[in-house]
Write a structure and sequence with these properties.
This protein is of the alpha+beta class. Helix content is 36%, strand content 24%. The protein folds into three domains: 9-267, no CATH class; 283-334, no CATH class; 423-486, OB fold (Dihydrolipoamide Acetyltransferase, E2P), CATH 2.40.50. The chain has helices at residues 9-19, 28-35, 100-108, 124-130, 172-179, 187-191, 195-215, 245-267, 283-292, 303-316, 321-332, 367-381, 389-422; strands spanning 50-51, 57-61, 70-76, 82-89, 112-113, 118-119, 138-148, 154-171, 226-231, 234-240, 272-276, 336-340, 429-438, 441-446, 452-457, 467-476, 481-486. Helix 1 packs antiparallel against helix 13, helix 7 packs across helix 8 and helix 9 packs antiparallel against helix 11. It is globular.
Length: 488
């Protein structure tokens, strides 16, 4: 084992990108175009953008994230209302439609985060620099306003151009621990006057919105996706990203902001792209999963009933809940993008319990968000719609395909990393949960480390959610294989 050759995980990631139709490196024409951009100067901006740099904007993201798309600020209103502003990086101003950079971004459709190497949709000089809402930098942004009522319902507000400045880059884990009472006030919060009160007000608004959406049937899913922790091409561990109050805050703010965007574009009678999760096609399978756990769901799809079932299951069996969540996700079907014309009946987002929804809050990372940003700016500036309905049809189909492909790349590299981590533990036994059992194979997730693999011996009779003990038989990082045999 000591003489095994090191595994080229970066090479595996590059190969996976190419295999699934991505361009992993930027062409020279793209880099020349981006290098020619001025660093600090604002591009020519129509109208008279508001100067909102003095507001106490802040961001919450991963500790190593530099491609910051959004910052937030709140203020108390009358009758217990909370006014929310979300500023989105104006990426379109530096990535014109039809430019070399735009064509590359449209081809890949999304940044791909493998845990081993990140493949950004836009060159770092843009996404982690000129168009990133980094702290202490003056930036152009599109600001989305909405009001959160005491009952958690929201009132969409105006959307407009503004100059903004991020006053503090906060980290999910630090803010989450503080809000949950298990950690100190983060240093950046403590050292920025008024920021503690600001974040607590944001948290209050988020909890209102989450409670409201949960009551309306937003699904309380919690899947496990273990990311490789890699140092100098060595896999040190598989790390599970924990949901916490800080992640919930950003999720709720972005759901409401994206809902406000659809209302804004609909009021302008513009076509757009919706983000949808259709009514589950395999509702019968979800009903069977509930029945196996002694519960009864309605014959017809019912998001509220499913949410109540999921909440009870999480309380009763938190260890197995991520695997139940994964099963429900598979039975529901994947999210997708669809072109929406004025007058169409919206499909809706079953998992979020919202009817009109899009993706417009992460233009540094997703191409659909740049498309939505261009639509917004055409309304603000009084210009013609920048896309035909036929173009939006093609984009929706293309970007749905690219999202699925990015998930396949990320999954493949995670499997390769797990194979590297475990390859010196052949013959050891592990406690595991069954995560999949079908004609395609039977799969388990180890409890520690949280790696997934296939049961190739003794898999007969295993069912999803069952706890088993397995022996590691073989690994192959280059094929992404981790094979187990059942021991009991």
């Amino acid at each position: 084992m000591q003489n095994e050759q090191p595994v080229n995980l970066k090479g595996i990631a590059w190969t996976a990108m190419q295999q699934y139709g991505f361009i992993p490196a930027f062409r020279p024409a793209v880099l020349r175009e981006v290098d020619a951009l001025a660093e600090g100067a604002f591009p020519d901006t129509p109208g008279d953008p508001l100067d909102l740099r003095s507001l106490l904007w802040s961001s919450i993201d991963n500790h190593d994230s530099e491609d910051l798309d959004q910052i937030e600020v709140c203020e108390k209103g009358s009758d217990g209302e909370i006014r929310v502003r979300v500023a989105i990086a104006d990426v379109d101003s530096r990535v014109p439609k039809g430019s070399e950079t735009d064509r590359h971004a449209a081809h890949n459709g999304t940044s791909v985060y493998t845990g081993v190497v990140t493949f950004p949709m836009l060159p770092d000089r843009l996404s982690a620099g000129i168009t990133s809402l980094l702290p202490g930098r003056d930036r152009m942004a599109i600001v989305i306003e909405y009001t959160v009522r005491p009952d958690g319902s929201t009132i969409p507000g105006d959307i407009y151009r503004a100059t903004v400045r991020n006053h503090a880059k906060l980290v999910y884990e630090e803010v989450g621990d503080w809000l949950e009472g298990s950690g100190p006030v983060p240093e950046a919060v403590r050292e920025t006057p008024g920021l503690a009160e600001q974040v607590l007000l944001q948290h209050e608004a988020a909890m209102r919105m989450k409670k409201r959406r949960t009551e309306q049937g937003a699904l309380a899913l919690e899947t496990i996706e273990a990311e490789p922790l890699v140092e100098e091409n060595r896999v040190m561990a598989l790390v599970v990203q924990e949901q916490n109050f800080a992640r919930c805050l950003i999720e709720e703010f972005m759901v409401a902001a994206n809902g406000s965007i659809t209302a804004f574009l609909a009021a302008a009678d513009l076509p757009m792209i919706h983000r949808v999760v259709r009514t589950p096609k395999n509702w019968d399978g979800i009903v069977r999963e509930a029945a196996e756990r002694g519960e009864t769901l309605p014959d017809r799809p019912d998001a509220e009933a499913l949410t109540r079932f999921l909440i009870r299951q999480k309380a009763a069996d938190p260890d197995r809940f991520p695997d139940l969540s994964l099963t429900i996700v598979k039975l529901m079907g994947a999210g997708e993008y669809v072109a929406f014309r004025p007058g169409d009946e919206p499909v809706g987002h079953f998992a979020l319990a919202v009817t009109d929804y899009t993706h417009g809050t992460a233009p540094n990372r997703r191409y659909v968000d740049i498309v939505i940003q261009r639509l917004i700016k055409s309304v603000i500036d009084g210009d013609e719609c920048p896309y035909t309905c036929e173009e939006l049809d093609d984009l929706a189909a293309r970007l749905t395909d690219r999202e699925k492909a990015s998930q396949k790349v990320e999954r493949y590299v995670r499997k390769a990393a797990a194979a590297v981590l475990l390859r010196e533990r052949i013959g050891e036994t592990f406690e595991a949960f069954v995560t999949g059992a079908s004609e395609k194979g039977t799969y388990v997730r180890l409890i520690d480390p949280p790696a997934e693999g296939r049961v190739v011996l003794g898999e007969q009779g295993l069912r999803v959610g069952q706890r088993v003990r397995v022996r590691l038989l073989a690994t192959d990082p280059y094929k992404g294989f981790v094979d187990f045999g059942r021991t009991r």
